[in-house]
Design brief:
Layout: E1 7-9, E2 12-14, E3 20-24, E4 31-36, H1 40-59, H2 62-78, H3 80-91, H4 95-120, E5 123-126, E6 131-138, E7 141-145, H5 153-165, E8 168-172, H6 178-191, E9 198-200, H7 205-212, E10 219-223, H8 226-235, E11 243-247, E12 252-257, H9 262-273, E13 284-290, H10 293-307, H11 328-343, E14 347-350, E15 364-367, E16 383-389, H12 392-399, E17 407-412, H13 415-424, E18 429-432, E19 444-445, E20 457-458, H14 461-464, E21 466-473
Helix pairs in contact: 1-7, 2-4, 2-5, 2-6, 3-4, 3-6, 4-5, 9-10
The protein binds 1,4-dihydronicotinamide adenine dinucleotide and the ligand O=C(O)CCC(=O)N[C@@H](CCC(=O)O)C(=O)O.
């Protein structure tokens, strides 16, 4: 495969002037995309073109911006199958799942329009003299960083609200999913977005560093690992004028207590732990099961159902539940993580296995109740750690024993247990009798602790895409009826 013009800067597709890099289909290592990365100079040009486009874009009426964003939604709909296939090829996720990702990208437009009005609209309040008006203004030029696991939907969740609010954007996708990013930008281009309003800089970490450290950006919206998020947070220290929104990983607990429908419990555990081959930030990593017969029965059933999970190619006619992980390296990392836990005293109830040289793994379950020195790491793959408990409060305490705080769930027939759980558990997403993956775009999406910096995305993305401006206004300069004591204006 030859290299090609993969940088979209000021409305033009340009060849990168940096190192070449490529994207592989993780199921068979076929090269599906190859190009040269953007250099720091090219990132600089992209920032300048976004700055130049800012006034004309932000001065446009909201409805005019919305019209273009809606044309993008039309493009997404017309090209949804091509996009779903691209996501599947590049990430390894099965087509049934990537079709929902393409659908979520379309859904994001109406939700972001609603959120713009409801969270950042114009509000007027009468005052004794004049009126108080709240408006919101775009920050300016913002950088969007995306992860590989939802290469379409998650960057889109920053880009759409950012553009609607009037910002101009420089998008740096994951270096593992450049192909999906390129296709998405081509749809923005077809939608007629003016030159410079969105720019794409492709590359590996060096390109990301050049963009994140560029003095010309007014903000950075990041979805990715906690490790990178923390680096960015340090880098942004001492720059209070720049907005930084961090959506990072999790080490998410799911507790089962007195739930009578074992099949439903097992279903919700599997959906929570193994969907997307465990590569969702919301995936359950720790499962708390009651000690005793009830927990034994659930575990037995879970083991049976997990062993029956179909793993396969994204385009298999008989669709698998799990596709390949993002890369051979990520898959090998899961085997290493499993071994580390076993060395610490965990027992493999089902061993996670890796088809070497590919991203394919089978799901694993580890019994970890006796591991004392448990690492607080996000293992971003299909490896579920089981803990048995006798006391509900002790289980909640252990569930909270993490620096992360993204998602958490309770499966129970007892609503009072949920009330208690909701009060005690520390997470931004807390579910009851539902899987802890599959969050709604119509709700805020974000975590606390090492999972985020209190700037939730999805429905609340509008909040970090604009700043509020408070004005006290009167049609004409008018002398007040009563002057302040000690004043005489003759
Ligand atoms: N909370 C949330 O909304 C979500 C969080 N995630 C998290 O994302 C992670 C998986 O995504 P990855 O692509 O592996 O994340 P990552 O942190 O490796 O990369 C994310 C982006 O940051 C860039 N980057 C990496 N190092 C950088 C640096 N030093 N300076 C500037 N840019 C840099 C990458 O090139 C990429 O564009 C998981 O930890 C997952 O939990 C994924 C989806 C949703
Ligand atoms: O961003 C949104 O519109 C809603 C959040 C969302 O879609 N979350 C997904 C995937 C995020 C991840 O875990 O990587 C989910 O909760 O399953």
């Amino acid at each position: 495969m030859t290299t090609h013009a993969a940088q979209f800067i000021n409305g033009e597709w340009l060849a990168g002037q940096g190192e070449a890099f490529s994207s592989l289909n993780p199921a068979n290592n076929e090269v599906i995309w190859q190009a040269n990365s953007a250099t720091a100079d090219q990132v600089d040009t992209a920032v300048k073109s976004a700055r130049e486009a800012f006034y004309s874009w932000s001065d446009m009426a909201f409805e005019a911006r919305l019209e273009i964003v809606k044309r993008f939604a039309e493009q997404l709909k017309e090209n949804s199958e091509e996009l779903a296939i691209a996501i599947a090829k590049e990430t390894g996720k099965p087509l049934w799942e990537t079709r929902t990702e393409a659908g979520a990208m379309v859904g994001k437009i109406a939700i972001s329009e609603k959120a713009y009005h409801e969270r950042t609209g114009v509000v007027e309040n009468a005052m004794p003299v004049g009126r108080a008006v709240i408006r919101h203004k775009a920050h300016g030029v913002v950088a969007v960083f995306g992860p590989y696991n939802f290469p379409g939907h998650l960057p889109n969740g920053h880009i759409v609200p950012a553009l609607l609010a009037g910002n101009t954007v420089i998008f740096k996708p994951s270096e593992l999913t450049p192909y999906v990013a390129e296709l998405t930008l081509k749809l923005w281009e077809k939608a007629g977005l003016p030159a410079g309003v969105i720019n794409l800089v492709q590359g590996e970490v060096e390109t990301g560093k050049a963009l994140a450290s560029h003095r010309g950006i007014d903000g950075l919206f990041f979805t990715g690992s906690s490790r990178t998020g923390h680096i960015l947070h340090e880098q942004f220290a001492g720059q209070p004028g720049k907005i930084l929104a961090l959506e990072m990983g999790g080490n998410n607990p799911l507790i089962v207590k007195d739930a009578s429908d074992t099949k439903a419990v097992v279903h919700d555990i599997i959906q929570s732990a193994f969907i997307s081959s465990g590569q969702r930030c919301t995936c359950a990593r720790k499962l708390f099961l009651p000690a005793g017969e009830q927990g034994d029965a659930i575990l037995e059933h879970l083991v049976r159902a997990t062993k029956a999970i179909k793993v396969g190619n994204f385009d298999d006619e008989d669709q698998p539940f799990m596709g390949s992980m993002i890369s051979n390296q990520a898959a090998a990392g899961m085997v290493a993580a499993q071994q580390q836990l076993i060395d610490l005293g965990a027992e493999a109830i089902i061993e996670l296995t890796h088809k070497e040289g590919t991203g394919f793994v089978t799901p694993g379950i580890l019994e970890c109740s006796n591991v004392t020195d448990f690492p607080d790491d996000e293992h971003f793959g299909p490896l579920l750690k089981v803990f048995r408990y006798t006391d509900f409060d002790a289980a909640i305490e252990k569930a909270n024993d993490t620096s992360f705080g993204l998602s958490a769930g309770l499966l129970s027939d007892n609503a009072e247990d949920y009330d208690h759980f909701l009060r005690r558990i520390r997470a931004g997403i807390v579910n009851f009798n539902r899987p802890i993956t599959g969050a709604s775009s119509a709700a805020p999406f974000g975590g606390i602790g090492a999972s985020g910096n209190h700037r939730a995305s999805a429905y609340y993305a509008a909040d970090y895409c604009a700043y509020p401006v408070a004005s006290v206004e009167l049609e004409k300069v008018t002398l007040p009826g009563a002057l302040s004591p000690g004043l005489s204006i003759d």
